[in-house]
Amino acid sequence: MEQALSGQTKVDVFLDLKGTPCPLNYVKTKIRMEEMEVGQIIEVILDDGEPIRNVPLSLKQDGHEILSQEKIDDRHWRVLIRKLK
């Protein structure tokens, strides 16, 4: 699924993980990213709390680039990640 967002950011993959607990949300994101090409961008929807604290940090430690984290409502965040390896 390809989406155009504001500015020049093109999202190649969308993953909605609302209600998915840690560490399963990280595992699902990592598995989906393994199917992507280097340089592609994934948009992930995560719950507030532990998921938004842990998933972006873990992916950054894996060597990927966190492009943005945006709160979209009281309980959810939109995170854009570029696959770097």
How would you summarize the topology of this molecule?
Layout: E1 3-4, E2 10-11, E3 13-16, H1 24-34, E4 41-47, H2 50-61, E5 65-71, E6 76-82
Parallel strand pairs: 3-4
Antiparallel strand pairs: 1-2, 4-6, 5-6
What would your notes on this structure say?
It is a single chain. With 85 residues, this protein is of the alpha+beta class. It has one domain (3-82): Translation Initiation Factor IF3 (2-Layer Sandwich), CATH 3.30.110.40. It is 27% helix and 34% strand. The protein contains 2 helices and 6 strands, in the order βββαβαββ. The chain has a 4-stranded mixed β-sheet with strand order 3-4-6-5, covered by helices on one side. It has a two-stranded antiparallel sheet with strand order 1-2. Helix 1 (24-34) links the parallel strand 3 and strand 4 (41-47). The chain is globular and about 30 Å long. Mean pLDDT is 92; it is low at 1-6.
